[in-house]
Design a protein that fits this description.
alpha/beta; Aspartate Aminotransferase, domain 2; 2 domains; 7-stranded mixed β-sheet
Length: 398
């Protein structure tokens, strides 16, 4: 008998998880993942905050096809002007403050973090890096070095030297940022740490300390970016502007794309002697930039950012009504439903998947489940997903 897709998946596709669900999905549309035999799931993960404008968004698909017909890839950075890159960079710059006007395109979130760390070392001439416990920044050696989860990091040592990890939301730790610090990298809302919001004043204190010491402040908005928290980037509602902004995930509208964004003054150190401070063959791929730009225009045109908070609040209200829910932490439509119990959370996730909804817990925070659907989700779809979730919680506590 011919092996089925699931068998081949487990046999030949390298796995990194010890609990792969391996759901068979044939098509995806809006918030729906559609499988064989009429199976379907409401997607509350969005590919981890990638599909912000919905799966198979027609505007994005059209942009991809149209750009693919013109050209796919022409040349590594610099030699040829690839117009989708220019148009996307200019559009993003219009929406960002004067400090963030120069966009360096890369392929992924990890690479955006790598580029940002390299840029900060180069610009300041310093080597020490500061990051926060429970932060997730990526899976390459540099990004791993500043990542907070010890168990994911330790088997790859030695990593970058000179990394200090502070406690998130503990202003007293900020004293450890000094004139030797090249940069501080922070997720303004910790994602894989279980949606931890910054305490009032914390980001401001961080900004002040960086200004005092000359360290660059890097915001990793790879998960919080592109409208998910209600503004294009979270820093815009926090009122604290970083020196370097890292973006990826939904930045490519579902295609692989990331960027680190800074001022022209800081960015231009990459072209001072020695030149070619960061090189990438595919970073800013024209098809990905066209997709990202189409997704951005859709996001803006449909007013999705403005709706994120009300949609999040609708979930929050429904979830808080269940006695097993200890807390809901939320920024727009990026949310953690806290049970304070990892085994219970796992049972809820399993039951939800069986009954038509895809969710999961967080990498460094197994006691809460994730709600981060496409921002296009309707009130009816929110209510339908709440019914599945509440039933799954009932089932898991019984
Ligand atoms: N930073 C944050 C905050 C992330 O959530 C992620 C991905 N989960 C990354 C960096 C790494 O992005 P990528 O997987 O595209 O390398």
């Amino acid at each position: 008998m011919k092996p089925n897709l699931r068998q081949l998946f487990f046999e030949h596709v390298g796995q990194t998880s010890d609990f792969p669900m391996g759901l068979e999905v044939e098509r995806a549309e809006g918030v729906w993942l559609l499988g064989p035999n009429g199976k379907k799931w409401i997607d509350l993960i969005s590919g981890v905050s990638v599909s912000n404008v919905g799966h198979n968004n027609p505007a994005v698909v059209e942009a991809v096809c149209s750009q693919a017909r013109d050209y796919l890839h022409l040349m590594v950075y610099g030699e040829v002007i690839q117009s989708p890159q220019v148009r996307y960079a200019a559009r993003i710059a219009e929406l960002l403050p004067p400090r963030l006007q120069s966009v360096y395109f890369v392929n992924s979130g990890s690479e955006a973090v790598e580029g940002a760390l390299k840029l900060a070392k180069r610009y300041t001439g310093r080597t020490e890096l500061v990051s926060f416990k429970n932060a997730y920044h990526g899976s390459t050696h540099g990004s791993l070095s500043v990542m907070g989860g010890e168990e994911y990091r330790n088997s790859y040592r030695p990593l970058l030297p000179d990394v200090q990890q502070l406690r998130f939301n503990r202003p007293e730790d900020l004293e450890q940022i000094t004139a030797r610090t090249a940069c501080v990298i922070v997720e303004p809302v910790q994602g894989e740490g279980g949606i931890q919001l910054p305490a009032p004043g914390f980001l401001e204190a961080l900004r002040r300390r960086c200004d005092e010491t000359g360290a660059l402040l890097i915001f990793d908005e790879i998960q919080t970016g592109t409208g998910r928290t209600g503004t294009l980037y979270y820093f815009q509602q926090a009122g604290v502007t970083p020196d370097i902004l890292c973006t990826a995930k939904s930045f490519g509208g579902g295609m692989p794309l990331g960027a680190f964004i800074s001022s022209d003054g800081i960015m231009s150190t990459l072209k001072t002697n020695p030149v070619l401070g960061h090189i990438t063959t595919f970073g800013g791929h024209p098809v990905c930039c066209a997709a990202g730009l189409a997704a951005l225009e859709y996001l803006l045109g449909e007013g999705l950012m403005q709706q994120a908070d009300a949609k999040g609040a609708r979930y929050e209200q429904a979830m808080r009504a269940h006695p097993a829910v200890k807390e809901v932490r939320r920024a727009g439509l990026l949310m953690a439903v806290e049970f304070g119990d990892a085994a219970l959370c796992e049972r809820v996730v399993q039951r939800a998947v069986e009954t038509g909804l895809l969710t999961e817990w967080f990498l460094f925070w197994p006691t809460a489940l994730r709600i981060a659907p496409p921002l296009t989700i309707t009130d009816d779809e929110i209510d339908a997903s709440c019914r599945i979730l509440l039933d799954a919680i009932d089932h898991a506590v019984a």
